[in-house]
Amino acid sequence: MIQKTKAIVINSIKYGDTSLITTCYTRESGIKSYMLKGILSRKKGKLKTAFFQPLTQLLLVANHNNKGHLNSIKEVGIIHHYQSLQTDIIKQSITLFLSEILLSVLREEEANEALYHYLEIALIWLDTHSKVSNFHLLFLLNLTKYLGFYPENNRSLNYFDLVEGKFLQNPKSNFFISTPQINYLKALLGTNFDALPSIDFNATQRQEILEVIIQYISLHLHTFKKPKSLAILHSLFN
């Protein structure tokens, strides 16, 4: 089936000497993987390797086959030309980290327009703002809304149970946080990207709450793999 859809590049890997397999999150069909035959050997043509950098926003005309199979792209164009996302070293590292997370958590081959819209808007915000040291924290926390396990927001209680996804007076599982990590979580819950510069985490606090969020996701998604790029991210914000 030929389909026209917006798409966000999640990952591209080399296949053989001249080809790529790229995975995209599409607005119309969820996660899709494409074989780009010979793209690395072409100097001319509609498909260019620059289009398939992580988190690039594209408009595709693609041939979508049955689920679980590699698809093909007939036409492609960039929707949003990033100003800094692929040139700023800090944003490049955030992009690598987020693409690794998204590759691990996005599995459904069906439309989720609310999730697609969130990714689209969040990435444009990252591209167009300079104070982004806390961006990945809120991005991941908000992502859990669309994955089905956003924390229940009763912030008057003393513990947050990572398995229950709730603030409790007494935790029910062995996986919970309290002071000071719970205060970092409370600072992020219910906020938006424009308010991030006012959240004054130091490097240690940022690392601690990121580890909490990653553990929270891993407890709720058993397919989740801890990203290899985490160490790079920590080193940037020290």
Describe what you observe in this structure.
By secondary structure, this protein is α+β, with helices and mostly antiparallel strands. The protein is built from six helices and eight strands; from the N terminus they run βββββαααβββααα. It has helices spanning 89-105, 113-128, 135-147, 181-188, 203-220, 230-236, and strands at 2-15, 19-26, 30-36, 57-63, 72-78, 159-161, 166-168, 176-177. It has a five-stranded antiparallel beta sheet with strand order 3-2-1-4-5. Strands 7-6-8 form a three-stranded antiparallel beta sheet, with no helix packed on it. Strand 4 and strand 5 form a beta hairpin. Helix 3 (135-147) packs parallel to helix 5 (203-220). The radius of gyration is 19 Å and the shape is globular. The mean pLDDT is 93.
Assigned CATH superfamily of the largest domain: Recombination protein O, C-terminal domain
Task: State which percent range the strand residues make up.
Answer: 15-25%
**Low-pLDDT sequence parts:** none
Work out the number of β strands: 8
Count of the domains? 2
Rg, rounded, reads: 19 Å
What is the CATH architecture descriptor of the largest domain?
Answer: Up-down Bundle
Keywords:
238 residues, alpha+beta, OB fold (Dihydrolipoamide Acetyltransferase, E2P), de novo design (two linked rop proteins), 2 domains, five-stranded antiparallel beta sheet, three-stranded antiparallel beta sheet
Summarize the structure.
This protein has helices spanning 89-105, 113-128, 135-147, 181-188, 203-220, 230-236, and strands at 2-15, 19-26, 30-36, 57-63, 72-78, 159-161, 166-168, 176-177. With 238 residues, the chain is an alpha+beta fold.
